[in-house]
Design brief:
Largest sheet: 5 strands, parallel
CATH class of the largest domain: Alpha Beta
CATH architecture of the largest domain: 3-Layer(aba) Sandwich
Structural class: alpha/beta
Number of strands: 11
Number of domains: 2
Distance between the termini: 58 Å
Order of helices and strands: HHEHEHEEEHHEEEHEHHHHEHHEHHH
Strand content: 5-15%
Amino acid sequence: MINENSLKMFSSQCDRIFEQLRRDMIGQEDVVENTVIAMIAGGNILLEGVPGVGKTRLVRSLGRVFSLPFSRIQFTPDLMPADVTGTNIIVRDEKGNSKFEFQPGPIFSNIILADEINRATPKTQSALLEAMQEHTVTVMGNSRKLNEPFFVLATQNPIEQDGTYPLPEAQMDRFMFKLIITYPNLKELNEIVSITQITLNEVAEAVCNGEELLAMRDTAKEIPIASDVMTYAMKLVMATHPDSECPANVSKKFVRYGASPRAAQALISAAKVRALINGRFNVSYGDLNALAGPVLRHRIKPNFEAITERITTDDIIREIIKELGHSNNGSTKKDVVSQKSKDESSTAVEIPPQSQVVSESKTKSKLFGSKK
């Protein structure tokens, strides 16, 4: 049973985690926070950003902070499924007899960095489906459990599309979050260059291990959620479907397919972790609003009209939250990395915008009006 002592222990552990991650990561507070939330909740993460913004560095730092072994898989067009999962090879025993022996692939680790996952063929991408959902790998009819905790953190470059393969919808749905890593500002860029002049290696220290991480996950599961907040979370997901019981107006106009039930599961699981990080025993509307972007942005399929009018899924999510009427309720999203805003109690909708899009003011005036 969760109590005040377990809440303090959870918050203190998160403070140490973010403190160490801040030694390696400059800026990107939302990305760092949501990555830790997803890891505690047991979800997989898709990191999207141009080269050089710290995607791989973040994953390596997480391995150091959580004291977990990680494997890096560089996805290329010629990568085969057996290169990921492993395969049976012929070996000789002490008596010289030949036999098959399973040689584990790099997926048999705790943290998997799937670098540039969209460069592999769909056949190889599908090798991760079972591992991401069931945490098992089946090779030649034999299923093998993966080590716990198990996370897949995949990266992809949104700009260079030559020689890439779009991720299948079934695999996209298995990512709890899709996080957008943007360019640093002038101050952050100066700090990044200053740090790398000293050393290019990560300096974060281990402050948590696998057993403690699993214990934190169990603690988060006990966080209660009010029936009204639960109903709002379900409506938030259902509103993305243009033909559901309660579709949003923006979905009827700009959405082809909405989010799956996995989105509702991810939203609730992640919101419980976020509530604990913010020092609360209960999930608020603000937790759901703040996590709606990472949870839903890769699960919504816009229609042709949305694409032609340059309306992004983040724009659609903002309008859904606004229409449901809880855009200003809940607890303020604090800067978890700096740990400076523990007393705030109101929230605004904070969904990081997609890179290379028109400004929000122009979007509202041009995109959501009548089509010209």
